[in-house]
Amino acid sequence: MLKKITTAAAAVLLAALTACGSGGSGDAGSPSGNAKGDDKITMGFAQVGAESGWRTANTKSIQEEAAAAGIELKFSDAQQKQENQIKAIRSYIQQKVDVIAFSPVVETGWDAVLLEAKRANIPVILTDRAVDSDDTSLYKTFLGSDFVEEGKKAGEWLKANAAGAKNVVELQGTTGAAPAIDRKKGFEDAIAGTDLKVVATQTGDFTRSGGKQVMEAFLKSVPQIDVVYAHNDDMGLGAIEAIKAAGKVPGKDIKIITVDAVKDGMTALAAGEINFIVECNPLLGKQLMELAKKVVAGEEVPPRVVTEEGTFTVDQAKTELPNRKY
Ligand code: AHR
Question: N or C end of the chain: which has fewer CB within 10 A?
Fold first, then answer.
């Protein structure tokens, strides 16, 4: 009896996962391309969540480019929880999709489920974020930014442009996530050996509300803050709200550096409330669909595809803003 209830509960969970996650052209819960016996590729995509403007743009890019490429997309939103991503990946394995793609919410803890995909002969593509695993045979390729480089660009700009600044507070991304780990490292490496020092660092979970909350606490506990280094625009925008509420002028009393360059971030940069943004490109959909087609066809793909991206100053943001797509 108990076993029956458990099995039924699992089926309901599986159906719910698929139904609430259906964002692509595919019919939620319908059999995969393999099971249907037609040529249409079915991709299961396990997204991190909808925590930031960057993530919203990334999801849109994946959904639009899947439709354009004629790929049936099964899409799930993990609400920034690793266990939800693992459940979604397991459901895609059970549905026998042709390829699984995902952006891992954190770096570690993926080997078991990726091994299940490998044993089921379903290729996996990492997009946006990496996993920390010794077994690189668990995925075919990793498409995304070089987050260490992004952190370095932020630190290099600060070294060259913030004369007299000393105390930096850092708003970290989600604890354990590749961009949080790597952007921290790149920045620290760049400012090493200078007068600049990270005097306080805490996660704001890549959200605007998280950035605001952490910044409010920093403003109360850190006597002198010269610079905010936020791992994404949303946390930087939350910090701006906290700085204004504390009677200070963002961009002047406290310099702000962020990562992403989404429209809201670029608007604040053009207004001088942010001083510098390192770009992180969310428009990965087209490249992902191209890689998926090759992987499903059994063609060789490079193990790492790095996204090209730049940086923006206040003046560059003013020029770029009217053309910004996300
Ligand atoms: O993994 C990319 C990061 O995740 C983006 O910088 C951030 O905005 C998002 O939530």
Answer: N
Quote the ligand 1 centre to 281 CA distance (angstroms): 10
Query: 319 lies in a domain?
Result: no
Global confidence as pTM: 0.89
Q: What is the dihedral of CA 271, 275, 280, 283, to 10 degrees?
A: 10
Q: Are residues 151 and 115 in the same domain?
A: no
Does residue 255 share a domain with residue 163? yes
In a domain, 158, yes or no: yes
Ligand 1 within 6 A of 180 CB? no
Please tell me whether residue 276 adopts helix, strand or coil conformation: strand
**DSSP, res 28:** T
Map residue 44 onto helix, strand or coil: strand
Task: Determine the residue of 146, 206, 234, 257 to mutate for testing ligand 1's pocket, defined as the one with the most ligand atoms within 8 A of the Cβ atom.
Answer: 206
* Residues 114-147 pLDDT 10s: 999 999 999 999 999 999 999 999 999 999 999 9
- Asked if residue 197 is part of any domain, the answer here is yes
For 245, phi then psi, to 5°, come to -65, -25
Both tokens of residue 151? 């952190």
